[in-house]
Amino acid sequence: ETILDIAKIRQDFPILHQQVNGRPLVYFDNAATNQKPLPVIDALTRYYEGYNANIHRGIHHLAEQATAAFEASRRAVQQFLNAKHWEEIIFTYGTTDGINLVAQTYGRKFLNAGDEIVISGMEHHSNIVPWQMLCEERGCVLRVIPVDDNGELMLDEYEKLLSERTKLVSVVHVSNSLGTINPVETIIEKAHAVGAVVLIDGAQASSHLDLDVQALDADFYVFSAHKLYGPTGMGVLYGKRALLDAMPPYRGGGEMIKEVTFEKTTYNDPPYKFEAGTPNIADVVAVKTALEYMDGLGKENIAAHEADLLHYATEQLQELDGLRIIGQAKHKIGVVSWVMDGIHHQDTGVILDQQGIAVRTGHHCTQPLMQRFGIAGTTRASFAVYNTKDEVDRLIAGLRRVQKMML
Ligand code: PMP
């Protein structure tokens, strides 16, 4: 049993206290985005009420206050990832934006015809499509690490894919569809042995696992704030300083320059080189609060509670006739996906919603992974710190009702 006071934690999340279709809301769509605690909502309000101003160039009081808060968030993220230098933290609009940034800058400069990019069979579309676009433009070749029946990456096959042609490996830390925690440390080590750089998609890992980019030796690490109790529209790209120095800029505009004339423009140093235009100041500021909120609860306590819920939900789900869990990896975060005989996942989602239970249904932006399992989609429940076993019981009762109505 958890040492966290979940009832008290739930008081921090105003959105949870509402009725949906006449029933108390059960929110099990946390892998898509999780809910925001009051301190985060307050941080946004405090910014707009107290010190909204454009950053970096201003010399007036509010601009200095906003700049200080913005840069304090960068240090907080540096600490969160255990990055060596604050200059290695680039603020983006999210995971998708971070991956596109690397593909469009590092990729376009350093990858050539015949070079190979290795991804995995469980990638989110945002870690597939940017590389396909790059391959199309540069003539590179995409290779894919296969997934086994348990939803784990086949590491022996991965090793066979690696060669001196491999220039970049981009793999998800934790699968959003299956919950699988991938052995990214090993994946990175093997990629480095052939001289490839590695990007890790940490979208699902960031709110569940302890992160240490130096221990991992990741070259790039990306995540989104909205999946760790922070605001939408804000994300982080970590990159090793030497790589960021060597990369050309992404978008052109204000902030990313040192000097502009019509003849020639010189670019700013990282991270500013990659932060053109007015950034998402309020949301960047509030991320620090979200990280502090998680720290206050203790990430290991959050993970332990979610593991309890996963264990309980998995046991209960397996009691249902004709239900098959997709993804039975040994190491998982609190995500469980399933299919039910004779019932389309969309019907499941609609009938659960009628009972106030929010789950996600469909391919979860991982169509190739669904094809691998020969299914069109799953129903997925994903847990956050505020979820309870009572809510899992509601889900199970809801699914019995789905079966009664559909079969
Ligand atoms: N990768 C993974 C594993 C994800 O779960 C998600 C979000 N569902 C993304 C990438 C994309 O994140 P965002 O939409 O915040 O850019």
Whole-number total of structural domains: 2
Describe the biggest sheet?
A: 7 strands, mixed
Could you say what the CATH architecture of the largest domain is?
3-Layer(aba) Sandwich
By CATH reckoning, the class of the largest domain would read Alpha Beta
β-strand number: 17
Rounded mean pLDDT score: 97
CATH superfamily placement of the largest domain: Type I PLP-dependent aspartate aminotransferase-like (Major domain)
What would you call the shape? globular
Q: Give the number of helices.
A: 14
Q: End-to-end span in angstroms?
A: 36 Å
Hetero groups in this structure are: 4'-deoxy-4'-aminopyridoxal-5'-phosphate
Structural class: alpha/beta
Q: Which residue ranges are poorly predicted, with pLDDT under 50 across at least 5 consecutive positions?
A: none
* DSSP strand content: 15-25%
Radius of gyration computed on alpha carbons: 22 Å
CATH topology of the largest domain: Aspartate Aminotransferase, domain 2
For the biggest β-sheet, the strand order reads: 4-10-9-8-7-5-6
Work out the helicity level. Answer: 40-55%
Structural description of this entry:
GO terms for molecular function: cysteine desulfurase activity; pyridoxal phosphate binding. One of its GO terms (biological process) is cysteine metabolic process. It catalyses: (sulfur carrier)-H + L-cysteine = (sulfur carrier)-SH + L-alanine. This protein has 407 residues and is of the alpha/beta class. The protein has two domains: 6-30 and 298-406, Aspartate Aminotransferase, domain 1 (Alpha-Beta Complex), CATH 3.90.1150.10; 41-295, Aspartate Aminotransferase, domain 2 (3-Layer(aba) Sandwich). The protein is built from 14 helices and 17 strands. Strands 4-10-9-8-7-5-6 form a seven-stranded mixed β-sheet, sandwiched between helices. Helix 4 (95-110) packs parallel to helix 5 (129-138) and helix 12 (345-354) packs across helix 14. The relative contact order is 0.16. Bound molecules: 4'-deoxy-4'-aminopyridoxal-5'-phosphate (PMP).
